């Protein structure tokens, strides 16, 4: 069983602590949080062992789960990796692409595994449909959230849209050709609403919209490909699959048939994939344990996290042009 420690015990850090404490693949050794008052309270009320420094925690574990503010990811990851310990990094992987690339280089140099916490890859609605998504040519995403001061220190692209960027990059097997985007600051110093259009070399187009000042929460992505439409609701963990096939010569009374201008007839039919309930955060942490134990490839690699960050910053650069 891998010994693991958590850096950062804020809102998300406490969730990671609880889940790791339940995990059968890790032994939770403890945590470190620079806010001593918060750390004392968590240790006292929840019973987790509190370390007095990052170095003390790193020395006691095999794996470090970094759930600190993004600005500190690089420094924390560097100390962890140089100690020869595996590292799980919450998204985004780091504050800059240059830092992310150095994290990759360090992980290779010290022969350690790394995974980035793009949790939507583990969403059960996406898992149930991802094998049906092949060569999508148009993708539309809406990720809307009610206002929450937590996270407003970075643009909405790094806070919310980067989830959808990672999902899209995982299914579109083509390089990005062009990006157009706009962003608006409403209540924060950085954009709170953003829209981006990503064009890929294979002709696929993705249109992404994110807002953190919405009146309702929404996390939906729609994939359009030849003969199929796939809708994934990441919030409610539901999916819808609509497909087309050649119409039978003698359609039934209730068959849905479309005919184009050339006279070609297609039958529309629905598939309802089973969505198996899971805990996506626990799954991402435990599949990382599997990758370490089996010397395999993590589901969301450091390279994946870096590419998502690279595209996010290209979108942000569009705001300034």
From TrEMBL:
InterPro entries: Gfo/Idh/MocA-like_OxRdtase_N, Gfo/Idh/MocA_Oxidoreductases, GFO_IDH_MocA-like_dom, NAD(P)-bd_dom_sf. Residues 2-118 form the Gfo/Idh/MocA-like oxidoreductase N-terminal domain. Pfam families: GFO_IDH_MocA, GFO_IDH_MocA_C3. Residues 156-216 form the GFO/IDH/MocA-like oxidoreductase domain. It comes from the Bacteria. Gene3D superfamilies: Dihydrodipicolinate Reductase, domain 2 (3.30.360.10), NAD(P)-binding Rossmann-like Domain (3.40.50.720). Transmembrane segments: none annotated. GO terms for molecular function: nucleotide binding. This is Gfo/Idh/MocA family oxidoreductase. It comes from Flavobacterium arcticum.
């Amino acid at each position: 069983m891998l010994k693991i420690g958590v850096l950062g015990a804020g809102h998300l850090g406490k969730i990671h602590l609880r889940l790791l404490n339940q995990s059968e693949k890790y032994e939770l050794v403890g945590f470190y949080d620079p806010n001593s008052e918060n750390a004392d309270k968590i240790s006292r009320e929840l019973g987790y062992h509190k370390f007095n420094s990052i170095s003390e925690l790193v020395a006691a574990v095999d794996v470090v789960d970094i759930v600190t503010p993004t600005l500190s990811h690089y420094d924390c990851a560097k100390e962890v990796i140089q100690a020869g310990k595996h590292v799980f990094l919450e998204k985004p992987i780091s504050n800059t692409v240059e830092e992310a690339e150095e994290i990759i280089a360090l992980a290779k140099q010290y022969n350690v595994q790394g995974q980035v916490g793009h949790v939507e890859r583990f969403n059960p609605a996406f898992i149930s449909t991802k094998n049906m998504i092949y060569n999508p040519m148009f993708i539309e995403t809406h990720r809307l959230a009610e206002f929450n001061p937590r996270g407003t220190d970075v643009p909405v692209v790094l806070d919310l849209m980067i989830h959808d960027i990672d999902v899209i990059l995982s299914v579109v097997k083509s390089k990005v050709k062009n990006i157009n985007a706009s962003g608006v600051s409403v209540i924060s110093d950085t954009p709170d609403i953003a829209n981006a259009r990503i064009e890929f070399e294979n002709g696929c187009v993705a249109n992404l919209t994110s807002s953190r000042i919405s009146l309702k929460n929404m996390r939906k992505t729609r994939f359009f490909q030849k003969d199929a439409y796939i809708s994934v609701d990441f919030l409610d963990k539901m999916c819808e699959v609509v497909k087309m096939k050649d119409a039978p010569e003698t359609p039934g009374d209730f068959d849905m048939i479309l005919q184009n201008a050339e006279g070609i007839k297609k039958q529309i039919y629905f598939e309802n994939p089973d969505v198996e309930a899971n805990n996506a955060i626990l799954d991402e942490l435990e599949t990382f344990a599997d990758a370490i134990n089996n010397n395999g490839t993590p589901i969301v690699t450091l390279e994946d996290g870096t590419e998502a960050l690279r595209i996010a910053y290209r979108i942000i650069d569009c705001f300034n042009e």
